[in-house]
Amino acid sequence: MFSAPLDPSHPYFSLPSQYQRDLVWSVLGPALLDCDWSPVRPAFLQHGPTLPWQHWLDAQQPPQQFRSPRLGLMFEQLWHQYFELGGMQWLANVQIQDEKRTLGELDLLVRPEAGHGACHLELALKFYLGIGGDWIGPNRRDYLADKIRHTRDKQLPLANHLISQQTLQQHGWSLPLKSSSQSQPQPQSQPQPQSQALMRGCLFHPADPAINATLPEEVNPQHWSGKWIHQHQSTQLLPDSRWFLLSKPQWISPACVGFSVDKAALLRHCQAHFQHLDTALCAVEVQQNDQGRWCEQHRWLIMPDHWPRPAER
Length: 313
Hints:
Layout: H1 18-28, H2 53-57, H3 71-85, E1 89-98, E2 101-111, E3 119-131, E4 134-136, H4 144-155, H5 162-170, E5 195-206, E6 225-230, H6 234-237, E7 242-246, E8 256-257, H7 263-276, E9 281-288, E10 294-303
Parallel strand pairs: 3-5, 5-6, 6-10
Antiparallel strand pairs: 1-2, 2-3, 3-4, 7-9, 8-10, 9-10
């Protein structure tokens, strides 16, 4: 498994396309969580495509219609492609319905290889900023604590529902029930081992020393981390480095780009951006490698000064 930051000479940065880097990072990058129901390295990865990873990426191209404005959907598609590369059996987005009522959806069923049991996976790609006891998404509507609770208590136990088992059997899949009489999903602190969450993403810690941020106990100590600031702090707190601004589809993995700008140019762009827009800017500090490519070393989110409060109109 990789950890961030990667040295500019790391072979990861020699991969020619962002799609390939996104795929490698989604599979081998640092996990967001580390707990019994979302381990750093799920057991099924032991049976997937073997390293060196350069070999099974050499000729790969993104699937048709791969790009999406939704990073979560792109992340799911990357895992689907990984299963295809490994020759694994998988089934995605299984709707669980009780007559006309939808109980939920199972993100993925995967069977690594013959002789190994199936595993139910819930996938998530998330980015949160820490402030006090909360970790909040850039859009202010998403909270890490809520995501942890919903995944643990709702999404993972759904596979143990009797109707889920019946639905899976119709697709030729099965997962063992905790007990044959169970007919309702039960919230539990330790979901069944055949159901696991696989989360990736970045947690942005406050660069302002006056702001504290407490991590939930489920967070992986070696998670991918960055820093966040308010726009008015950018002159003071941003390092005097070389920079590149990422568009939203470039957020999934550490960037490898063909040019960079200095801090003064970055600050001019930030000022113009926040005069008209209310969205976060994702800026990465980069270093140049021997191939002349600029490689991400540290990631920053620059937020409007009123964040996390809604803008006043």
